[in-house]
Design a protein that fits this description.
The chain is α+β, with helices and mostly antiparallel strands. It is about 20% helix and about 40% strand. An eight-stranded mixed sheet has the order 2-3-4-1-5-8-7-6, covered by helices on one side.
């Protein structure tokens, strides 16, 4: 898989409804994972969306999540750019360059879903999510 760039939306407790709406608009296949599926024991957030992904037949890719309670949600600033793929060196290079004059908000490290992931805000205030897919097998 080559690297892929797509929008990533942040919602406040209504990511599931938003992504189901976008599926009605654009069609395609929608996958939703909750915080509970990844071990969150708090029932107040267990059913909220940790990650969702809509891939359409036209090649659109939209991703979204509910903002965790311990993070600020700012409508109007609730979109990030996600870059994901298999080439770890390439993607780590992007992360290093984007965060170099910016701010690392989550260090690049292995996550509970098995991939390596990091977040940063570049020097221009754009939020970036970088995900390196775990090797298959």
């Amino acid at each position: 898989m080559t690297s892929r760039l797509n929008p990533y939306f942040a919602f406040k407790d209504n990511a599931r409804q938003a992504m189901e709406f976008y599926k009605e608009v654009f069609g395609g296949s929608l996958d939703i994972n909750t915080f509970g599926e990844f071990g969150q024991p708090d029932p107040a957030v267990a059913d909220r969306v940790m990650h969702s992904q809509l891939e359409t037949d036209r090649g659109f890719l939209l991703m979204a999540a509910d903002t965790p309670p311990d993070m600020e949600h700012s409508p109007g600033n609730n979109i990030s750019v996600s870059v994901s793929g298999d080439d770890g060196d390439e993607l780590r290079g992007y992360f290093d360059k984007l965060s170099g004059s910016g701010t690392v908000t989550m260090p690049m490290e292995k996550q509970v879903w098995g991939d390596e992931f990091g977040m940063c805000v570049d020097q221009f205030g754009i939020a970036w999510l970088i995900n390196i897919n775990a090797p298959a097998g």
